[in-house]
Design a protein that fits this description.
379 residues, alpha+beta, 7-stranded antiparallel sheet, 13 helices, globular
């Protein structure tokens, strides 16, 4: 896949028709480094081995959606799924690739990257590089002093409760998100991504009072990480997460034109390594006996914040850059167009689904939940 012009990339990411799937999306989401500027995160050390005896029969995974009964093979046939992995207690129960994808593909995370960013914040907190989650952003990033995001605390950004007015609209290129995407890719309308974020000074709500989803807030967390650790996010990810995870392949951060990592949604990894990230979170932030994400912070990540927030009327809350459910220890990394890492801590169960679903395709999301609940019923 050739490098794509900024306008073409934006058109792919924020389609005017939410359920339209351009065939080129399969290439963009399964080989993002061919389209974006990127920085490689090298794997190191002993691989966290996944056991694989025999794949389960897909007919054993059955669910009902909109009054019809489906099995796993039906799901794969009629959805835009590019890759699917189910792991329980470190054993691969099912793994498949579609639409020309292979195990070597590094798939775009979309907003699943937000959860990875939150994990890195917790590691920096444990190291003392971040003193407190209740520190303001401007304590670390003086360039944002006096701005809406500068006055927000790190905890506000983790929980999406900064109160800063921001329009997270994926189908309108003139929305704040659309203009920010243009800024990152082409530099249009901004001197830098940090310069773009400086302009947001209006408070829609008092800080901490209301949940409002904002990719800009996560991008600000990336700037906090850079300042607090005094190193780039890529090198910090490699040193503190990827080299300890037991990844079997390199990963990558996509960057803006200045080489700043787009931590809100531009991470790339193989299907199995996404599975290992899920396993890490299913194992309370530890790889076997090595604690990577601090345990106390992990517990905070998966606990509902003081502000109860619901998405699209469903019973889903937001923790530290990941989505929670009423079932304790059941949560998700969630990304645009159907990217998902589902985790059930009690069962040590992880399901990774990668896809190119339509933007805002509610049926795709609801059917994915139905499939996940069927997987959780497996014994």
């Amino acid at each position: 896949m050739k490098k794509l012009a900024a306008a073409t990339l934006i058109a792919f990411l924020i389609s005017a028709c939410a359920n339209t799937i351009d065939p080129a999306l399969f290439g963009l989401f399964s080989s993002p480094e061919t389209a974006w500027r990127s920085k490689k995160i090298k794997r190191e050390g002993e691989v966290w081995q996944l056991k694989q005896e025999q794949q389960l029969d897909p007919r054993t995974i059955a669910y009902t959606f909109k009054g019809r009964r489906y099995i796993l093979t039906d799901y794969l046939a009629h959805t835009s799924t590019t890759a699917l992995l189910i792991v329980k207690d470190g054993e691969v129960l099912f793994e498949t690739y579609q639409h020309g994808c292979k195990p070597s593909n590094r798939f775009l995370s979309a907003s699943m990257a937000k959860t990875i960013t939150a994990m890195l914040i917790g590691i920096a907190l444990e190291e003392g590089k971040i003193k407190s989650l209740d520190d303001t952003v401007e304590t670390y990033v003086p360039e944002l002093r006096g701005t809406g995001y500068g006055k927000a605390t790190i905890r506000h950004l983790l929980t999406m409760t900064s109160g800063v007015k921001w329009e997270e609209d994926y189908v309108n290129p003139d929305s704040d998100f659309g203009r920010f995407t243009e800024c990152l890719l082409s530099g249009k309308g901004c001197a830098s991504s940090l310069g773009f974020l400086r302009q947001f000074n209006e408070q829609a709500n008092p800080p901490g009072s209301k949940f409002h989803y904002s990719s800009a807030g996560t991008m600000v967390l990336g700037y906090v990480l850079r300042a607090a650790t005094k190193q780039g996010v890529t090198s910090y990810t490699q040193e503190k997460l990827w080299s300890k995870l037991g990844a079997e392949d390199d990963a990558a951060w996509m960057t803006d034109r200045d080489g700043i990592e787009c931590v809100f949604g531009r991470f790339a990894a193989t299907l199995r390594d996404y599975g290992r990230l899920g396993m890490l979170m299913a194992n309370q932030g530890a790889r076997e006996t090595q604690q990577i994400v601090p345990l106390s912070y992990w517990k905070e990540m998966i606990s509902a914040p003081p502000v109860e927030s619901r998405a699209a009327g469903s019973f889903i809350w937001y923790g530290y850059q990941l989505w929670l459910t009423p079932n304790a220890g059941v949560f998700s990394f969630v990304g645009l167009r159907g990217q998902r890492i589902q985790v059930d801590v009690k069962q040590k169960l992880v399901m990774v689904r990668l896809a190119v679903a339509g933007v805002g395709d509610t049926d795709d999301s609801l059917e994915l939940v139905a499939l996940w609940e069927a997987v959780r019923r497996l014994r």
